[in-house]
Structure formats: C-alpha cells, structure tokens
User: What shape does this take?
Amino acid sequence: MKNFSSKGIRFSGKSIKCCIGFIDLVDSTKNTITMDNLESIRKYYSTFINSISENVKSYSGKVIKNIGDCLLFYFPKTSNNKNSDAFKEAIDCGFNILDKRYNINEELTTQHLPPFNYKIIIDYGLVDLALMGEHSQIDLFGSTINLCSKINSSSLSIPNEIIIGDNVYRVLKSFPSLSKNFNFFNNSEYKITHVIRYPTYNIKKEHIFSPPEKQIGSAINDLNESKNENGLFFNKENNNKRVIVVDDEQEILFTYRAFLQDYNYEVTSFTDPSIALNYIRDHSNFNNLLVILDIRMKNFNGFQLHQQIKAIDPTIKILFITALDIIDEILSIVPGLSKEQIMRKPVDKKVFTNTVKKLLNK
Assistant: This one.
C-alpha cells in the first residue's frame, strides 16, 4: 500500500460540478491469472493505464487515480455548464477510447497478451476536491463518484459500450445542436434505495460532428435554439430565483404563492409529489432553486421526496414545512439539514418570506 506520509488526504472545502468517467478493464483478473511471468502482467496493465491516460489527456481530461483495474478521470472544462464543446470532448473521449481499442488489441495479440474489453460510465455532478500526499495530487470524492463506481460495477454497464447517467444525459439534451449527433437508448435504472432509482442510457453516435470551421456557427445555433426551449437548461441564461412548492392542500399553496407574489420569484406549485418530481427531473439548471415540501402527503411523504430530489442534484435547496412538532426528529434523520430549513405550520408571512429569501441567497 502506498504511503501518503503524515500529510495524508486534505479536503480543500471546495466543490465543483463536472463530468467524470470510470473505465473498467473487463475480466482482467481472469486474464492475468493465466500469465506465467510478472513482465507480461506489468505490460498488460501498463498498456491499459498509459493508453487510457493519453487518450483522456488529449480530450482535456485528467486521470485522477487507478482503483485496481479501473481508472477514474474527469473533465475540468465541464465545470462551465454552458460550454457545449467541453461536454462534446467528454463524450468524444469515450468513443475514441473504444475506437482505438482495436489497434491496441492487434498489438497485444502480437505479444501473446489477451485483448482489452472496457466498461465505460460517464456522468455529471457535484464532486469534492481534495489534495493527496506530499505532492498535493488532486483527488475527487462525493456521491457522484460513488454512484458512477457502483453503476460501472453493476450489470447496467455493458462491455465496449458507453453508459451515461441521467445527469449528463439532461445536460447533453440541453444543447440541441450537440445532442442531435447521438442516439440515446434507455438502459434501465440503478436502484439506489427501494424508492430512489437513477436512469441510465446507452449513447451511440448518430453521425459525424461538424468540421472545426463550422463549430462557431454551431455554438451560435445552440444559443438560439435554447432560447426557444420551454425548459430551463444550463445553456440558457436565467438569473431569476425559482421556488417550487409541494403540498397536497390547494389552499396552502394559494397562501404561499400570495406571500411570494411581491417578490421577483418564479413560483410553481404542485399537489401531487410525483408530478413535482417529474417536473424537477425535466430541468437541468438547479441554480437559484428552492423546493418547499410538506411532510405528510399522499403517494409518498416529504422525506421520500427529499431523497429523490437530492438524488437528482444534491445542491438543490430544501425547506420543510410541517404541522408536526418533530423538528428535532427531522434534524436527526435528514443529514445536512439545519433548523432554518424547517418551519412549523401555520407560518408567519414575514418569517416565511425572510426564510425563503435567505435560503435562495445562500
């Protein structure tokens, strides 16, 4: 085991949203166990690591670490969620890895080594940045990393295909001139809990991308097309603060909307939590968004809806409003929640509007 010295791993306290990727070398243990010398094993793994690392680097990505026969990498430029070219590079990288596999396998065959087969998962989400060891090498942590790793090791990951998560799928679909270059096929859902399921997709090329001289025009088309969309996408400027209210009583929704009518908020309300959840899933831009939840509702309660929302994007702000006197219990069962995110019914207008304003400005 590598010794990271007394400095160990130091979390920076910084987080970014970006594309990450996992690539797994399929059946590597079965392949290497039959090799009769260490030199062949070293050659096998070094060819895998070096070829993937060079490929990722050529598409503005960075390999973070190898985990056994799996590599974790990310694309820093995708932290700008309006940069369609950065997301194009991330997907192109995956396809190029698969395309180059044939040449690499021919070379391996001449050296009497087994061919490479890959499982690739690419997704987008929030990651925590950390520094590792004496040389302060960047490392990534967080739920996005964990989810990608689990999908990659599950039956949802298909050898020599690219599987993408729902988060990056929605970002790609927000760039019409980019997404039209791909076909997306439903690849079932990953079961996070018994009530939370995360969609995945198999992505394939539709046709060749536009040549470089047309890319500027395509970028302009992306911007113009996004202006005509009804959804709120990453490449669409929207500085308005948004509030989604979910309560199964229409009178309460009317009251909350009346409280907020004097503010420049975009307010949407739902009595059915399932419809509210689908509405949130159809959006890609979760900046300046607050979701206000009742706890006791039909279909599923506010805690279950909270879990589903956080699975979509952990940065979405939540405010619970309940008639139950269980504030301490809520704080104990919902991780990361603060007292200011829970209010008792009936709400005071001034307290309500001040709380909404404070949470939106965080």
